[in-house]
Amino acid sequence: MSRNHRPFRVLLTVPPGGYMAERWSQGRMMPALGLAYLAAVLEQQGVEVQLLPCQVLGLTEEQIAARIAEFRPDLVGVTTTTENRFHSFRLAGLVKRAHPPALVVLGGPHLNATALDTLRHIESVDGVVVGEGEETVADLVAALRSGGSLEKIQGLAFRREGEIIENPRRPLIPDLDTLPLPARHLEPWDRYDCRMEVPGQGLLPAANMMTSRGCPFDCNFCATPINWGRKVRGLSPERVLAELEHLIERYRARVIWFYDDTFNYNPRRLRRICELIRQRSLDIRWYCEVRVDLLSKADLEVMVRSGCYYIGFGVETASQRISREIIGKKVDLPKALQVIEWCREFGITANPFFIFSHPTETWAEARETIEVIERIQDRCDISASILHIYPGTPLEDRARREGQLPQDFSWSRDDFRRVVVLPAAQGHVPLYVDKLSWAQICQLMFRFSLSTGRVSLRRKIPQVLRSIYSAADIWRYTVLLAVYLRLQGGRLWERFRRPPRRQKENKRP
Ligand code: B12
Ligand code: SF4
Predict the structure, then answer these.
(1) Strand 308-316's sheet: what is its strand order?
(2) Could you tell me the distance, in angstroms and rounded to a whole number, from the CA of residue 224 to the centre of ligand 1?
(3) Any alpha helices (H) in 252-324, and if so which ranges?
(4) Rounded CA gap, 412 and 371, in Å?
(5) Is residue 173 within 6 Å of ligand 1 at its C-beta?
(6) Which of 259, 260, 264 is nearest to 274 (CA)?
(7) What is the pLDDT of residues 106-157, one digit of tens each?
(8) pLDDT, tens digit, for every residue of 353-371?
(9) Quick check: pTM over 0.90?
(10) Any ligand 2 atom below 6 A from CB of 213
(11) Rounded CA gap, 427 and 116, in Å?
């Protein structure tokens, strides 16, 4: 497979459609950091790399095919999440038709637990990179260039003459400082319109970066511990500062969105980063996600003084039983409420996340959560969703054991006819529905969205109609509509009796 006549070409792409495209259609978007890291590593190897974020370029399938045929890549990599997996699979087929010699490789969070399943069912996919991609993709390209064996490449699963081969997983990169900066220069930067709203300052130019990989906790629904490990690896504070300065100088960033799962996993490192931001007088505001149980008031103050204006954190439930025994979250509601008060004191926004329909969650427990949400919604910016099942998580094991996912469920077939999905929310990712009835779940979500002004249902109608597969779906949407109309009716009556409350603006980027 030696291609010495011209530089090796790699096209890295985000599929069109799905949540990312929908998010983009509503305005702004951040580049996919995973692909930018891979591109940077490949550039170091002298590979000709193109990034094709189909979701922001708004390309039709014909235009994508034309771009591929014109570039004639040797390798096409598609980043894949569970939510957009069917878009990725479709794109893989498109690549094969547009330029058959290209090797099609998938990577991304969805593939960490589904490599074999994907290769078994999706013929147009030649290979899957499991886990951290930088070293695997570099080894893959080196092997393809030299005609070397793919069997020695850790972290790769691939098809050879009809047989599927899964190599051992690759150990995680021990020192993230050895990675190059993500190749943002290959992105069509202007198309993203990376701006974020800072209260009192309006929309400011923004950029994203990730300073650590991993999370020491192991919440039952979360893919991070299996994707990145429980031992957190962080860039050194000095390297964080170098990337921040790069973003400010080269991309005029005034706001930074830290993509870390738990930015405060190491309070000492956090304080050092904040201290360096202040020492170097960086004129930035920033957003990050934290664990409230690791956050002290003094640390929050340090964060705010160095530009933090918004923090997100998982609370998930008001029930201590669910938090401790079911999710394994170990976050106390009183501590979360305290952090919300500290945020108010410091003049920044708190963004707590909640989830409904946990395993064994009763109606009384779910009501406890929605009542807390309604009580605090004037003091913070709340996000909430229904529990979804992601591959490789403890929740997936539980769902298979309990039959919520059929034993032979495949993530790569359109098996969603046999599970509960709500494509207008998180694509064809199965919902976990246990003790709460469907009507109760609808009631909780509508109570949440009506009190926070979050969901425009009209916008979702075409999506809903496109995603009706069975009589069960029709029944579910009918219940949904009935619950919505009942709640709306109640609200209109309330408004008639009392003047309306001021609607809160959704400030989350
Ligand atoms: C920031 C973020 C977002 C942002 C923006 C994402 C963006 N622009 O890419 C927003 C808020 C929009 C978002 C939305 C959602 N997100 Co999100 N998000 C993240 C977060 C925190 C960081 C993503 C990131 O950039 N990581 C850093 C880069 C370096 O990692 P990476 O993309 O995984 O890439 C590496 C490898 O995966 C691999 N790789 C990736 N792509 C490819 C491609 C090839 C060809 C190869 C070889 C390798 C490879 O190599 C890369 C470098 O090592 C992750 C958690 C996490 N820690 O990663 C969750 C995460 C990706 N999100 C998740 C979810 C569930 C969602 C939502 C469904 C949430 C919701 N309630 O709506 C939506 C839907 C998004 C979608 N289309 O699926 C899950 C996905 C799980 C899964 N199995 O798919 C994650 C893993 C969180 C979790 N802990 O479970 N998200
Ligand atoms: S604390 Fe957050 S990132 Fe860590 S396991 Fe729990 S949900 Fe995932």
Answers:
(1) 195-198, 202-209, 255-258, 285-289, 308-316, 349-356, 383-386
(2) 9
(3) 267-279, 297-305, 320-321
(4) 38
(5) no
(6) 264
(7) 999 999 999 999 999 999 999 999 999 999 999 999 999 999 999 999 999 9
(8) 999 999 999 999 999 999 9
(9) yes
(10) no
(11) 22
